[in-house]
């Protein structure tokens, strides 16, 4: 049997090495929010520009300051995101493009007001907080111990920091935007992480009934050894599917799939190497507290 818990400090150091740069990035550069949250316009159009970078550069030269980003969505098709603009201003920009590249074929033009964007941010935060509270209550009730619930939430918080931090870095260096698809990815990741954590916790509970006399760290080691293969197989299945989507999917879903990939890896890691060791640390602290109380 592999003594996983004996390396718990190493697991926490690995987590810190991934999370700390992300936290620094969040403080320095924050998140690059899309027009879904900040308000603005999305214009999908067909233009015979060589690529997205040259199209964005041309718009910059023409002092079209409303442009936030330009993404290629296919052959001579682009998704242009603007700060809040009117239909009339969009038509002016369309004329500018037509003079340079010829015919401009508009597929769609959508606007999102800043009030709607702010409301979406508020609802997203409320949704995540409520989900965390329900998970805390459910896990604590099922396992008759609040520390199980707290450990599950900390593992979930770990995964949130990993993905938010990395996407803050991606946003700064690669101009990756945080949109509603990203929120969907985060919520999916958190549910996966909690599910994996509950599987490990459930095995710990079952083994504590079968082996009531063995130490708690040994019990957790045994639970991890018995669940890790299943957890890895489950995660690898998801990863292979996501890699296929990444290779064959479109540009618009690329970063959504990357978010799911990062979250799957982080969730698999945290359920086994963060949540379970946290239970052991908590148990050790409680035992030390009892000794101090007796000696005092």
TrEMBL record:
The keyword Transport appears for this protein: yes
Biological processes per GO annotation: intracellular protein transmembrane transport; protein targeting; protein transport by the Sec complex
Q: Which UniProt keywords apply?
A: Cell membrane, Membrane, Protein transport, Translocation, Transmembrane, Transmembrane helix, Transport
Recorded GO terms, molecular function? Answer: protein-transporting ATPase activity
Is Protease included in the keywords of this UniProt record?
no
What Gene3D superfamilies would the database entry show? Multidrug efflux transporter AcrB transmembrane domain
Where it mainly occurs, coarsely classed, is membrane
Q: Mind telling me which GO cellular component terms the entry cites?
A: plasma membrane
- The residues covered by the Protein export membrane protein SecD/SecF C-terminal domain are 95-284
Subcellular localization is given as: Cell membrane
Q: Which Pfam families match?
A: SecD_SecF_C
Q: How is this protein situated with respect to the membrane?
A: Multi-pass membrane protein
Q: Which residues cross the membrane?
A: 12-29, 120-141, 153-174, 180-201, 232-249, 255-282
Q: Which InterPro entries match?
A: SecD/SecF_arch_bac, SecD/SecF_bac, SecD_SecF_C, SecF_bac
Q: How is the quaternary structure described?
A: Forms a complex with SecD. Part of the essential Sec protein translocation apparatus which comprises SecA, SecYEG and auxiliary proteins SecDF. Other proteins may also be involved.
Query: Which purpose does this protein serve, as stated in its record?
Result: Part of the Sec protein translocase complex. Interacts with the SecYEG preprotein conducting channel. SecDF uses the proton motive force (PMF) to complete protein translocation after the ATP-dependent function of SecA.
HAMAP family (alphabetical): SecF_B
NCBIfam families, per the entry: transloc_SecF
Q: Which family does it belong to?
A: Belongs to the SecD/SecF family. SecF subfamily.
| Protein name from the UniProt record | Protein-export membrane protein SecF
Q: Which gene encodes it?
A: secF
């Amino acid at each position: 049997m592999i003594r996983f818990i004996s390396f718990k400090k190493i697991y926490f150091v690995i987590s810190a090495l991934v999370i700390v740069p992300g936290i620094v990035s969040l403080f320095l550069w924050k998140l690059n929010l899309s027009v879904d949250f900040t308000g603005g316009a999305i214009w999908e159009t067909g233009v015979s520009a060589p690529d997205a970078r040259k199209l964005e550069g041309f718009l910059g030269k023409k002092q079209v300051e409303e442009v936030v980003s330009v993404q290629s969505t296919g052959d001579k098709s682009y998704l242009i995101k603007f700060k809040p603009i009117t239909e009339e201003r969009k038509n002016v920009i369309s004329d500018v493009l037509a003079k340079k590249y010829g015919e401009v074929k508009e597929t769609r033009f959508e606007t999102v007001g800043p009030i709607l964007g702010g409301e979406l941010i508020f609802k997203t935060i409320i949704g995540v907080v409520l989900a965390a509270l329900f998970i805390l209550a459910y896990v604590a009730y099922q396992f008759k111990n609040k520390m199980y619930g707290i450990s599950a939430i900390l593992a979930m918080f770990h995964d949130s920091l990993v993905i938010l931090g990395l996407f803050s870095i991606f946003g700064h260096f690669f101009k990756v935007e945080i949109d509603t698809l990203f929120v969907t990815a985060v919520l999916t990741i958190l549910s996966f992480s909690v599910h994996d954590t509950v599987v490990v916790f459930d095995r710990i509970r079952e083994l504590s009934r079968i082996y009531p006399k063995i130490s708690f760290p040994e019990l957790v080691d045994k639970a991890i050894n018995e669940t890790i293969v299943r957890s890895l197989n489950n995660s690898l299945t998801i990863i292979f599917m996501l890699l296929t989507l990444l290779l064959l999917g479109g540009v618009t879903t690329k970063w959504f799939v990357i978010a799911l990939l990062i979250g799957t890896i982080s969730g698999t890691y945290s359920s086994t190497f963060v949540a379970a060791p946290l239970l052991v640390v908590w148990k050790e602290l409680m035992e030390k507290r009892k000794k101090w109380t007796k000696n005092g």
